[in-house]
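FAQ: What does the model actually see?

It sees only this:
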Amino acid sequence: MAHASQTSPVGILGGGQLAMMLGEAAQRLNMPTSILERNSASPAHAAHFPVTIGDWRNPSDLKTWLASLSIVTFENEFVDTGALREAAHSNLQFFPSLDAIDLIQDKLYQKEFLKNAGLPVPRFRSVSTMADCEACADDWGWPLVLKERRMGYDGKGTFVLRGPDALDGFWSHYHAGRDLMAEEFIPFATELAIQVARGKDGSVAHFPVVETFQSNSICLWAKCPALIPRNDATAIKQMASTVINQLNAVGVFAVELFYTASGEIFINELAPRVHNSGHYTIEGCKTSQFEQHIRAVSGLALGETSLTYPGVAMLNILGEFDGQCDIQSPSSLANGHAALHWYHKQDSRRGRKLGHITAWGDTANAALATAIEARKEIELCPKK
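And it is asked to produce this:
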């Protein structure tokens, strides 16, 4: 496998678990990284990657960190693109571009982009009054989905209103100060996702389509390959190509989708970065999403994305209590058919992503069953 020739580090804005796993991938390519993170107890810092402790919201911290970099990428899209433009020097490149980040940060603009690209999305509108919402419900029926246009993730900022009383309660108590959009509710049978990568040379590589399962709007598991007809998987790959090509983006993107019982496909949301639904790729694909992202932003050839096992699954390890957390785990999970990834977070909260398990088998369902059994071998306990 070709290693990077450049010696200047790849800058990563943010030091959470995604930055940690990007750092691990870069390390395997002998590529240095530089991470800016305000929390000295972040996963990337705990994993001993070079972390600059600073606040990207502080112009001085940001400008100082950027000064020695030529490439910067992002752990998440919740960044101040204006501050980045102001602090950037002339030779600095952001991947993906700040224009792409701007578009994806606003869910209304994101949906307009997808619709204008001819891609299937739920019906949507900007709403600013209760009457606007009632008009959407009259046209599309109940339930009605309301979303905050900015800063929502893992279900935060998304509200599914089942009828007029729910809308009245929402408008009375929650809407103030929120920029909102309304969406048609899609009665999906399955949620799907795909990771797609684009290199600096315009080459595109797709990972397999995965099925995901959410509880309380947090991903519990993903299994791969998704059990859908081949032509539908091909259509989803074509949609992902359209997204990343029209944005002229470089790096790995995730496309999250709804799949109905009748086989209709709707794009739900985009993520301009590596994504939880792609964590299975570390053991499950010949090139992980993290290595692929580093390859893309640094100008290396994209790697092979085929599965290394017939079936692969990822199971998130979620916090069970509030407070500092330790983990007890055997050295080998599920008789060597699963792997543990622990994020070294200092504090646990109920439902917080603390790590994940990857498992593999003869089918996607068998891999998921193995991941579930492996989870029983792991104990979360308060730190003493």
